[in-house]
Amino acid sequence: MASRNFYIQLILRVVFMTLTAVALAFSVAYKWYFALGLCAIILVGEVYSLITFINRTNRKIAYFFDAIKNEDFTLRFPEGVTIESFKELNRSLNRVNGLIQEVHMQLQIREQYYQEILKQASIGIMTYNEKGHILFANPTLEQLLDYTPLNHIKQLKQVDENLYEIFKDFNPFQRKLFQLSNEREQTQLAIKSTPLTLDGQSLQLVVVQDIHKELDEKETESWVRLIRVLTHEIMNTITPIASISDSIIKYYRKGDKITPMAELEEVQIKNTLKGLEVIKEQGGDLMDFVQSYRSLLHVPEPNKSLVKGKDLLEKIDVLMSVRLVDGESEFSTDCHPEGLEFYIDEKQISQVLINLGKNALQSVEASKNGKVLMVAGVDEKGSKFIEIRDNGPGIPPEVMDEIFVPFFTTKSEGTGIGLSLSKRVMQLHGGSIQVRSVPHTETVFRLTFA
User: Fold this and answer.
1) Torsion sign (Cα): 111, 115, 116, 118
2) Which end of the chain has fewer CB atoms < 10 Å from its terminal CB, N or C?
3) pLDDT for 186-215, tens place per residue?
4) How far is CA 336 from CA 283, 313, 450, in A?
5) What is each CA distance from 129 to 126, 157, 167, in whole angstroms?
């Protein structure tokens, strides 16, 4: 706020200018040329002094903002001036300068803190702009790629030509798996892209992670599950065979001697025939079991063609309608948009949908108002999908991780090969199958196509 002293000085300057202007007018009227020149010089000086006096505040503020722009916080304005308003202004500018300096220091500390976190992160992180210039790459990424320093994505050509092609055409929210090989080892990289905007500039944030260890653990875990199921199934078949064989042997051998035919009773012979029939039956079951395993390993490569989603679901609807229990369950389909097409092997995917639809109908048999809905569409990322939803009892959380393991089943009938075979078919199509389940509310199997 301007002080009284400031107003007095301003008024006095204006008064002196007015008096000088009057003197200049008299000098012109009476042709006092010397006084005329002197008054003109004085008037110009007074005008210049007034402009300087008024603009002193503007210059200080301009200097202040220039200093802030250049991150120069050493600028200080004198607080011992005689004009009280200027003194207060200088104090305010110095105080604001101090606050901005403190905020700037805090931001620098925070930036260093985040930079250190990124440097110590166990995953590779990189940002680059639309021209391919790399703005940031943490040490973990340089270690994974065995290349430093990284300034442009074209440098990735020297690491691996195919890796450069991934980064060159990387779209936002894409995920890629890439196997990087060098003289020492092979590294399985999971690469994910996320868009971001910084200071109006579009950037790509890419996260790179070595998942070799995780894949090894998952592979080992899958083998353990498979061996456990195989052992269970084989033991269930072999145990009765061993038991019956032992019983039959006792009929025909006493100690180390073979029982004479004359001593054999008719009951023993009949039991022997029954036992051999059971052994034959169990052997047949074991052969069927092995054949199921072979069918899983020998799924043919898909013979793909463009198939209209609406036509595909209508065929499944007809097939599923035959399995409906009158008045107790409901099966329906929906395709949106109606012109949606899938590039698939129609026979293989139809078999997958039939298997999932059959499972869903079986799960809602005991439910009141059981409903199964098969939906085809496109998600927010542009990926085509087919979902099979039901409102049955759902899948218990404790077996959720087991349902895609070959031969695992919670049913009294069935081989437990359906879901694992469906997963294999989707893998051959370059897609995936996921499941989510809320017990007694909703279970959804989702087929996502590349």
Assistant:
1) positive
2) N
3) 778 888 988 888 878 888 889 988 877 666
4) 49, 11, 18
5) 10, 18, 11
